[in-house]
Amino acid sequence: MIKKSKIITFFLIVAIIFGTVIFTMKPVLDKINLGLDLQGGFEVLYQVKPADGKSKVTDDVMKETVATLDQRINALGVNEPIITIESGHRIRVQLAGVTDQNEARKILSTQAVLSFRDANDKLMMDGSDLVPGSAKAVTNDKNQAIVTLELKSKDKFANVTKTIAAKAPDNQLVIWLDWKEGLKYKTERVKENPAFLSAPNVDRELDTKKVEISGSFTMESAKELANLLNSGALPVKLTEVYSTSVGAQFGQDALAETILAGIIGVAAIFIFMMAVYRLPGIIASITLVAYTYIVLLVLGLLNATLTLPGIAGLILGIGMAVDANVITYERIKEELKVGKSTKTAFDTGGKESFRAIFDGNISTLIVAGVLFYFGTSSIKGFATVLIISILVSFLTAVWGSRALMGLLVSSNALNNKPGLFSVRRKDIHDLHEGKQTFDLKTHFDRYDFVKHHRAFLTTFAVIVVAGIVILSVFKMNLGIDFASGTRAEVSSTSALTEQQISKDLKEINMPSDDITFQNNNKTAVISYKGALTQDEVAKFKTHFTKAYGEEPNISTVTPTVGQELAKDGLWALAIASLLIVVYIAFRFELSMGVATILSLLFDAFMIFIFFSIFRLEVDLTFIAAVLTVIGYSINDTIVTADRIRDVSYKMGRFKKPEDIAFAVNHGLRQTFIRSINTILTVLFTVIALIIFGNESILNFSIALLVGLVSSVFSSIFMAMQLWYVFKKRELKKKGVIQTQKKKKRSRTDQPVV
């Protein structure tokens, strides 16, 4: 009898899910902060050094510096700046939505040490004599912009002015901002030095607390100086070691393109799931909608910043989330085929698939955690989204989809309707036959995967040797993230030419021999081996913004930071690999862990070879892609390993190599389809990102594609073959030990004559 209440509850829950998404999605999205690569802005990493070159930079000094920078950023009117202290006496500043990046850089890095000196450069007063927050930009009676200050001690100023007045004709009170040793007021070009503010003549003692700084100020520059003085002098010197900036228009275009790619990729997953799994596929699509909404909701509640790689991580996460559904539905189909009822098949399939889903997600979570620990800025954003995605997929794909499916199953409406689960009646055995799931026939039963294991492993070995040769000859095309230097992207609404860009660079006296084009020649990529100075960056931005109407994107990395990023990337790869070996060894056995990680490292190696051959640029997102492939492609191996473990339990202890071969062949044959399907769902999203996504994450997406395709072959023809070899040797070793024990025992048991 059909229980209509269960069906009504099902449709009511579905209506609530879609209603919630439709009516609350906009406010949820509004709470999510967009990173600077999506709304424009810049990020800069400063090396903090003592201002006098002698003092020690302490934790208190770092905190004081951050507080001063925060005050200056508030003066810029930037919402929600991100300022973090990093190891090695470094401070990272991220400012999204900044309209004038040149001004922001200048205000941040200026020490703002005000000093009052005589004409012979002797210090008379400094910024510590000012009343905090007293600086104001006003106009005088001649309608000229000036800065007014208030001093703490009227008497001290009176003494200073009295001393200066007595030095006539050298009776100037010279006012400097960030005066440096070697600057002399009595030089011809002193007024061209940006440190010089003004030098009023003092002809009498001034009994006042009020001071006016006049000069060739505009009202904007006067306000800028007042803001700097009010925010306080930096107690240290800030040296820029890394920076990246993104124009607002570029950010908007990147967001639109990536969202379009995501919609297309997710739509492809929906169509695929419904075509292959029918009713369960529809339920998977519903839970994927809930999954996407919950991930965005969590990001909003955490006040997280969503970056371009973060959106790519969200799209990739959707492909990963559906894997749990694929694994579960394939197990349910197997249970139906051995003759079990719909309810029993649903319960057993869900229970049996949980182990593989759990192990696969934990492995990916390990890699995401390593990425978060070692990553910086946008890569941390990618790792954050990946971690949230994995945790939420447990909620939706495991619990949510089973809850919805359970309602329909318990309603009895699905009884004796295997077609709804994409199972043909002719493939269903009678329950009384006593068939087990590992007894089921597959389309791959005629293939002996283990028979040619030597040929498979030899092929992989040849590829590795050839890859080493390729890497030694071609090497990697390191981007500025690792090789250091400056990379600038100039965009235009029309096609650009090398002659045109070279002419522009010549005008600003910043020529480059490395000019390439992207986006149908509408984007010129200009590279410099050395890091540009702040003044050069400002000059570059000003010229090209005026020439083409869009602010260029500029990234600068010093050699020190480039080396550190490379080192961190290798550490991340090594630690993630070690943790996966430990986890797989714990969940399965050490030999499986070693075989698994060797195949995963091969997948990573294939990405390196591909990028080397095709001269694709290696940047920060490349490392994220490599680690993501390692974390995700392990899913195929785990699904197969889980099935081999089931077969092994039913067979008992392996007694001969043929037993091991049978288990491996059986596991591969029965999981081949689900391995292909789980990879396909992720490939849909990756291919969509490559075709429709933004140019800046193209190499990231290509790396994922290469690694995922490689993982299909390595998990089947390498990982399991290696495990077979390891187990075979282990069996032989045990056999030798047992034989030796028997011989020893037989000699002991002989009678003494």
UniProtKB/TrEMBL annotation:
GO terms for molecular function: protein-transporting ATPase activity. Residues 122-236 form the SecDF P1 head subdomain domain. One of its GO terms (biological process) is protein transport by the Sec complex. The chain crosses the membrane at residues 7-25, 259-277, 356-375, 381-400, 455-474, 569-586, 593-614, 676-694, 700-726. It holds the Pfam family SecD_SecF_C. The keyword rRNA-binding does not apply. InterPro entries: SecD, SecD/SecF_arch_bac, SecD/SecF_bac, SecD/SecF_CS, SecD_1st, SecD_SecF_C, SecD_SecF_C_bact, SecDF_P1_head. Its main location: membrane. Keywords: Cell membrane, Membrane, Protein transport, Translocation, Transmembrane, Transmembrane helix, Transport. Residues 242-404, 549-728 form the Protein export membrane protein SecD/SecF C-terminal domain. It is found in: Cell membrane. GO terms for cellular component: plasma membrane. It comes from the Bacteria. The keyword Transport applies. Residues 62-120 form the Protein translocase subunit SecDF P1 domain. It is a multi-pass membrane protein. Forms a complex with SecD. Part of the essential Sec protein translocation apparatus which comprises SecA, SecYEG and auxiliary proteins SecDF. Other proteins may also be involved. Forms a complex with SecF. Part of the essential Sec protein translocation apparatus which comprises SecA, SecYEG and auxiliary proteins SecDF. Other proteins may also be involved. Part of the Sec protein translocase complex. Interacts with the SecYEG preprotein conducting channel. SecDF uses the proton motive force (PMF) to complete protein translocation after the ATP-dependent function of SecA. In the C-terminal section; belongs to the SecD/SecF family. SecF subfamily. This is Multifunctional fusion protein. It comes from Listeria rocourtiae. The gene is secF.
